[in-house]
Structure formats: C-alpha cells, structure tokens
Fold Energy-coupling factor ABC transporter ATP-binding protein.
Amino acid sequence: MREAVVSLADVSFRFPEDPDNTLTGLTFEIHPGERVAISGPSGCGKSTLLYLLNRLYPLNCDGIVEGDIRLFGKRAEEYRPGEINRLIATVFQDPDSQFCMTTVEEELAFTLENLRVPRSDMGRRIGDVLAKTGLAAFRHSIIQSLSGGQKQRVATACALVAEPEILLLDEPLAHLDPLTARNFVRWLDGLQKQTGLTVVVVEHRLDLWEEFFGREMTLGPGGRLLADKPAVPKPPTEFPGRLSRMTAKPSLSVTGLSVEIGGKQLLAPLSFEAAEGEVSVIAGPNGSGKSTLAKALCGIYKHNGTVRSTGTGYVPQSPEFLFLTNSVRDELAFSGLAAPETLDDLAGRLKLEPIREANPFSVSHGQKRRVAIGAMLADNRPVIIMDEPTSGQDAASLRELFSLIDERSREGVTFLVITHDMEFAAGVADSVLLIKDGRMTGKFRAEDVWEEPALLDAHHLLPPKGADRRAPAFA
C-alpha cells in the first residue's frame, strides 16, 4: 500500500473558549484513492475534522491542536497558509460560505487565479469542469439566483477545477433533489475511478450512496473514533406510520399567487389550500421554486395574488437568518409564548440541552437547524413552513422531528415541509404539493404520488423505500 496521504496520531482539538475537546485522541490513516465516509451524530465534530485536514483549523479559529497531523507525509503545520489547498479541495456544508464572486464563471476563474493558473488555460479548465458537473448552462448565471442544490453543484465545481488529489465533501447531497443526488453519486463514482482521487465525505444519509464507500469512520461524543471499518450499504431511516387528524377547516388559503423579481417570473400563478392539522410536503427538482413559494407565503418575497393564513412561522433553509440572540436558550425563549416546561421539553427532544448556553451561530449546521425548529415550535404559530428541516440530521434527530410534527399536527398545527428526503416525506405527509419550473403541477394525496413512477420521475424524485409503511393519509 502506498504512503498515506493523511495520517493522524493521537490528535485532539478544542476551541479556546471551550473547556472540552471537540475531537479527542484520533488516530488513523487515509491512503491514495480511498473513499471514506465520516459518520456520527450531529455535533460530534465531523465538520471540524474536515477543517483540520484542509488546515482551515487551527489557522482561522485559534483552536488548540494536540498530536501529530501529517498531510502527504509532511507535518501539517509546515505548510504555508493556502499551500495545502492545491492538493486538498473542500466543498463546505453551506455553499454560500465559500462564494466570493457574482457569477459561476467568475467564481471558477477566481479559484484558478488564486492558484496562479495561466489565463490561457483558464477557459479550457472552466469549460471542462462545467461539463463534468452538468453546469454548462449556468456558466454566466448569478450564483445568488440559484437554488440551494444548484449552489452545491457550483461549489463542487469550484473544488474540482483546482484538480486536487483529495476532495473533502461536507454533506454534499443535503440540498440535492433525489434524482440529482443519485446522479451526483454516480458521476463522482466515475470521476474517482477515472482520476484516482481520494474522496472523504461527511454524511448522515449513507443509504443514498449505496456501495460508493469502501470505508466508514464513525465519531461519537467528544469527537472520539468509535469505529473504523469497511463500509456496508445502509438502509434508510424508518418512521412509524401516522394517522392524519386533519380537519376540513383551512388554515392556509392561497389564490393566484405568483412571484416576479427583476422582470423574471419565478412562480406562475398557483392556488391551493392546507387544512388545519395537515402536513403537506412541497417537492420538486432543484431550482423549481419551492423556497420561492415558502418565502412568498411568509411575506419575505413580494407577490401577486392572495394568501390567507391564521398565522405563519418559517424555518429557512439557512437557519442562521432566523437568529436574533447570543444563546440557544434565548433563541428558544425569544417569542415569550412558551412555558418554561415546554422550552425544557423542546431542548431535550431536539438534543439542544448540551449547547443551551452556546451562541447559536457557533454550533454545527445540524444543531443550527434544530435551534431554528425549536424556536418556531415555541412560537406557537398555527401554520409552520419548514425549508429542508431534515438537512444535517442524524437518524435519531429525524425520528424526533417526525414525532414533533406528528404531535403538533394532532393539536391542529398545519405544516408545509420542503424536503428532498423521500423516506421522511413518505412517513409524515398527508399530501404532496409538486412544483416544477416555477409551476405547480398539483396537490396530491401522499400515497397516490408514491405509486406514480412517471410523476416522480418528472419531478426528480425517487420512490421512497418506506412508502408501504404509511397509514392511510385521510383516514
């Protein structure tokens, strides 16, 4: 076996303001061409480990590192700032955090300029990577006009244009529709076989990767390595059946809603109703207008048409946009509408108790999302819209989210949930609202959608493996 490209010997890491380690006593090697999955519960230090491997930490956080880290046989601290990025490229969990330029082409060119690639070679490399990532049509697009899934693909293209030897990916499928996610895995499989690239991925949804990984490293509390073994395909998270308690009384009524921004129509006029206690999943391809609809319903985007609601709360795809305080405790209590025992129950069930005094901006991506969910549930709104609430969540957190939605819906709360997780959708949904190309295809009974392969395929969805466990939605 060739010399390891990554070698850690008894490595621990903590942030200077924290008394406890985020990572503890890690010892392992990664060799050229390996495909490694890093798994473990939300908040256990998976992303922090990636940031040690690409030297983002400790250089950009004053973190304290103990032990020995070697990259390509050289001690990590011997690399000059930025030097390792020629060899190790990273796609972050939040793609917005790594964009600096306006358009896709400008972002790719900016990456190449930082690597001092000759201008005469830039056009070819940009064209090649856009073709490989299926983004050729978006070459001149404004990045901030793209959907979350499209941004994730742009971030991946920016990492690959550097032609690295190691690719680090932090939950790269989290914002991709099911068909795009499957195609991404297959595309990455072919690319890795062609180039011999070493691939290291932080991932909760290992079932989506099928047999891609050769090895799985599992982290536990305190960032300790619990297991390092050959990877085996994982089944999806299972959810118990739920019986709908929705009433005939509408909580949300939408008539002729459309959205136009900068002369471009993002949503064609659409109309639908959601009943008291109904759980409706909004699904469709990346860039189809799902988040645009959510923002219009909450009044973030100006719109034409009429929206009648008994009161709407919103959990955005980027949860930090919701935060207004300096602690998780204060975020949960911000509305002042929930009793202390309710806040304690939410903190416990959403696994927020250990970080209750932490700044909500400093916790992991999955924890940020649960803080935002908890804050909105504590707000006691009769209609709650959640944009990708399953992103970054481990299986236990997904099951708890399912239970919370189920319980609140039985109390009469109406939920609109944007998700690409079809197993979660099959477990929780009474109805499915399908959107494609800025137009609403229709609102369907959930069980009817899972039985229509052509409908699923047209909206970049895959049949959920757990659909047969769903209780009748309108019983």
In short: Confidence is low (pLDDT under 50) at residues 468-475. The first strand starts at residue 6 and ends at 14.
